[in-house]
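Technical note accompanying the year-one report. For the benefit of new consortium partners, we illustrate the data format agreed upon in the data management plan: each record pairs a sequence with a structure-token string. No post-processing was applied to the example shown here.
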Amino acid sequence: MTTQSQPTEAGKPPTGMLPKLGDEPGWRERLSFADLAERYALLVAWGIVIAVFGVLEPDTFLSSANFTSIFGSQTALVILTLALLIPLTAGDYDLSVAGVLGLSAMTIAVLNAQHGVPLGLSIAIAIGVGALIGLINGILIVGLKIESLIVTLGTGTILQGVVLWLSDSETVSGVSSKLVNAVIGVRFLGLPLEFYYGLAVALVVWYVFDHTPVGRRLLFTGRGKSVARLSGVAVGRVRIGAMVGSAVTASIAGVIYVGTSGSADTSSWSALLLPAFAAAFLGSTAIKPGRFNAWGSFIAVYFLVTGITGLQLLGVQAFVQQLFYGGALVAAVALRQILRRGEIEEEE
């Protein structure tokens, strides 16, 4: 006896099946010139910024030393931005990532420099602590149904206090030179290895988001938790896993952060949170507009840093950096909302 499958609405997957990335209705039709222009507008804007500052400050801005500095000193920010993408894709916010980065860096410094713990073990402990923090965040958010903004704002503040306690409110230096050499001591094609670490993490995040069931579950959860749950997605586990993944990735950023100088301070890392959010949202307007994606965010980090560097070379006062990042965040969020609204209207 044969059974007939239930008819499904055109363009929508049967219940219990996740849509493959790129299978959205009208996807192929939207691959037009306008679509390509939208996808790569940020790259064009980046080129314009380089051209403008190159004309204004040709001797300093266009120097190889300046571009080496831009590309070789932002890996911690790149990885921190990629860490944010994981919960953002699932519909949650993680304001504790900068605190996790700071705690990871300080844990390595205290264990290795002050207590003589082997470098490898110190790094493993730091990443393990990050995973535990992410798990706690996830359980509080999902188990107690508390908004992710509130939970992670609280845990991030707690982590700042823990860093001060571990370090006695002082910078801890003397981390093994092996880590420093592995991060900035070796160059390839003129750039320190840390740039390629950021590139590698971006590759991993891109692959997970675009080519694995985990990425599809994250995306489906972020687009609608109720619909995802009805389709068989374990939404709670996905959200907890996203928080753990975010914290582990932020811990890796902490490893890079302490490796750039061989020391860990008590507060400078907290300034990375705003530019990381700005890059994450700005990146969602490029490559795959309307969706948080690794390559868009990777480009966005260097676009923003290029703008800041150019302004600094022009002698603009330091407060403009905060205005630049804050303005970029507001503009990126607004543009993302416009793109998402257009995407939803097309699907409907």
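Partners are asked to follow this layout when depositing records. The mean pLDDT is 83.
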